[in-house]
Amino acid sequence: MKLTVNKTRISLVLMALIAGLAACNKEKAEEPKMEETMAQPAPSASAGVAYVTSQDAGVSVIDLATMQVIKQLDVKADAPRGLGVTDDGKKLIVATRENESISVIDTATGEVLQQIPVGKNPEFVRISGNFAYISSEPSAKGGPPPKPGAEEEDDDDGEEKIPAKIAVVDLTKGEKIREITGGPETEGIEFSGDGKLLVITNEADNTVTVHNIESGELVKTIPTHEMGDRPRGIKVSPDGTTYLATLEYGNKFMVLDKDFNVVRTVDTAETPYGIAYDKKGERIFVATNKAKLLQVFDAKTYEKIKEVPTGNRCWHFSFTPDDKQILLACGKSDAVFVIDAEKLEVTKQIEVKGLPWGLVTYPKAMGSLDKP
Length: 372
Prior knowledge:
Methylamine Dehydrogenase, Chain H, four-stranded antiparallel β-sheet, globular
């Protein structure tokens, strides 16, 4: 009897164990596998992209996380130069010289949505809201500019004095709606701090002109010849109180106050071109073409902080959206130089063939062609 009882107890224990194991296995079977429950590393937030025009090619797209070219965009026209991106990042606007138009590109697909005629020799592009402003050079003859002090060959034939136009394009309507008359061979375009005025550099007659953005009326003309010829880059400070303009044949940039009075000039290396503040307005960056330098100045004292050796024919540049790096397009080096914004040292060269000209980023960042 005792033996029987023990066998019974053993059987009951075994049955309980088997039942427990079965239940445990069932629970495990119902649970997702470990690799399914553990959250996979989320892809890092996009660092954004840079768009680079090349005069003998199209537009290169650089992934700012990897600093590599990830695609090429065909602008369906020759000689792309100035460019800008809309506030929502959905459209890229590129000035194409040979067909006197801008190409409107869908950034998601890379397709050209429309080509809009704007005028002869379109160059700079700036965007404000749903409107694009494009400078032109109707009297430009192409080829290299004359040497400093040289007379224009046809200076008195009247053609050199053709006033240029700033085309105003309604991007919603997809058409040029009006023009603002600038000086001969307009170059850089900047908006005033309050957005009511357009500030333009005019290289052929050595002036900076200020215009009412709504009416196009000329508000002020600032001659530059006594300080230097061929004004090129133009930039407003982040607080909207100071304007800078590079004088290519003066080897300096001039400083204007909020009322567009010249308050001083600052010497630079040879042939300064693109110019920009950093986002905080603490430093000024100048790309000097022939000197092959990116020069950095203190924005309060205008003392030179550092010179960064670069490549050949470096004109335009932009900070990355996180303000940690600077990308500089160097046309005759067929490269974009990547510069650490704090150490002020070149960290990489990205091959971009076809004479890279202009560069902007999305999300937007401070640079010679755009600002946040």
